[in-house]
C-alpha cells in the first residue's frame, strides 16, 4: 500500500544508477507536517506546512507516484492498460514468504511468466519495477525469516537473488503486521519490529541493494514494540527505507460496528475515530519518521454494506454534527455512519468472486461468499455512478467533508458503498503537498476508470512529467 510538497532539498548520491524518467512537483517548497494538513477538521479551521529529510542517499528528490499491479488480474487488466507514463514506479503484487527463510515464492506459474514481462514493460517506459513481498495472505512466515541472524542472512540472500533474477529496481515489504496478528495464523514474535530492522540493515548492506529501492507498505500506526504498542522512535527505519507507504484504507469495513469511511483523510469528526491519513502522518512523524519519506496509500476501491431502507436515509438529527456537502441533483441524502446487517454481504463489482464455503488459509471454517469490494470502475459499471464518477440520479448519496468520503446507496439492493472519487483524491493530493509528504501509492492500478482518480491526485499535487530527454539520475 502506495506525499509531499516537494522537490525535497536533499543531496543526490554521486553513485551512478540507471536513468529513469519521472514526475516532479511543479515547485520546490518543503515545509513541515501539520496535524490537519489544511483540511476540514469540523470547525472550519485547517493547517499548513510539510517537510522532512533522510540520511538515506538513495532517496530521489522528485516525487513518488506509484501503484500496485495485481498479477491475478492480468487477464482482465493486461500490462498495456497501465498508464505507465503517469507513474514513477509500479509494484508487482505479490511474492510470498515461506517456511524456509531461504525461499521466497511466487503464487503460481503464471507469475513466473508474467513478472519478467512486467519488468520489461516498466523499463521500456522508463519506470521503476518493484516487487512486493508479503500482503495479507503472504505474511505468515515473515517473523521466522527475520527471527535470527542466520535466518536474516538467508532471507536477505533470497531477496537479492530475486532482484538479480528479475532485474528489479527494488523490493517492497508488505508485512501485515510485525508484532501483531493479521491473517489469523501468522507467526508473531514480540521482537518482530527490532528483528525486521536488523534484517533491513543486512539487506541494505548488500552491494546489490546499495542503490536500489527498499520500501514498505505499513499500518496507519508505527511498528509496535515488545509490549505491542506503537514504538515511540522508528527513526532508524528511515535510514534503510527509501519510503514507506501508509496503507490508509480498509479503516472501516464489514468488520466494523457501522458503515464508515474506507480511506478517511481526517477522522476528527467521526463518532468513533479509527484512524486516518491525518492521524497516521501525525503518529509516524511523532515517532521520528520524516514526512518527506512518507507516501500516502490511496484506494481506488470501496467496501459495500447491507443497509435497510429504514436506516439508510438521513433524518434531521442524523447529520446534525457532521460535515457534509450539498447533494448532487437527483440524489437523496443518506445517513452518517448507519448500522448495517453484518450477516448479509452484498456482492461487489463484476470482479468480486463468490468464495466457496470451506476452510480459509489458516484452516478455520468459513461460510464463503463475496468480499463486497467495489472498484471505482465497478461503481460506474453497475450504475451507482455516472461515467464521470458522480452519483447517478435516483441513488442515495452523502459526502463527508471531514473524511473526504463519498457514500452511495442503491435502495433497490439496500447496498451502501463507502469509496473514494476524484474529489477525494484531489483532497488527498493537496494534503500530500501541505504535509510535505513524498507522494502517493494507489491500490490498485486496475481499480481506476479512465485515470479519473489518478489524474485528479496528480493535478492536485501539480505534478509535471519530465520528458524522455530529461531523465533524472538517482
UniProtKB/TrEMBL annotation:
<keyword id="KW-0119">Carbohydrate metabolism</keyword>
<dbReference type="GO" id="GO:0000272">
    <property type="term" value="P:polysaccharide catabolic process"/>
</dbReference>
<dbReference type="GO" id="GO:0008061">
    <property type="term" value="F:chitin binding"/>
</dbReference>
<keyword id="KW-0378">Hydrolase</keyword>
<dbReference type="GO" id="GO:0008843">
    <property type="term" value="F:endochitinase activity"/>
</dbReference>
<protein>
    <recommendedName>
        <fullName>GH18 domain-containing protein</fullName>
    </recommendedName>
</protein>
<dbReference type="GO" id="GO:0005576">
    <property type="term" value="C:extracellular region"/>
</dbReference>
<dbReference type="InterPro" id="IPR029070">
    <property type="entry name" value="Chitinase_insertion_sf"/>
</dbReference>
<dbReference type="GO" id="GO:0006032">
    <property type="term" value="P:chitin catabolic process"/>
</dbReference>
<dbReference type="InterPro" id="IPR011583">
    <property type="entry name" value="Chitinase_II/V-like_cat"/>
</dbReference>
<keyword id="KW-0732">Signal</keyword>
<comment type="similarity">
    <text>Belongs to the glycosyl hydrolase 18 family.</text>
</comment>
<keyword id="KW-0624">Polysaccharide degradation</keyword>
<dbReference type="InterPro" id="IPR001579">
    <property type="entry name" value="Glyco_hydro_18_chit_AS"/>
</dbReference>
<dbReference type="Pfam" id="PF00704">
    <property type="entry name" value="Glyco_hydro_18"/>
</dbReference>
<feature type="region of interest" description="Disordered">
    <location>
        <begin position="27"/>
        <end position="57"/>
    </location>
</feature>
<keyword id="KW-0146">Chitin degradation</keyword>
<dbReference type="InterPro" id="IPR017853">
    <property type="entry name" value="GH"/>
</dbReference>
<dbReference type="InterPro" id="IPR050314">
    <property type="entry name" value="Glycosyl_Hydrlase_18"/>
</dbReference>
<keyword id="KW-0326">Glycosidase</keyword>
<feature type="domain" description="GH18">
    <location>
        <begin position="63"/>
        <end position="464"/>
    </location>
</feature>
<feature type="compositionally biased region" description="Gly residues">
    <location>
        <begin position="39"/>
        <end position="54"/>
    </location>
</feature>
<feature type="signal peptide">
    <location>
        <begin position="1"/>
        <end position="17"/>
    </location>
</feature>
<dbReference type="InterPro" id="IPR001223">
    <property type="entry name" value="Glyco_hydro18_cat"/>
</dbReference>
<feature type="compositionally biased region" description="Low complexity">
    <location>
        <begin position="27"/>
        <end position="38"/>
    </location>
</feature>
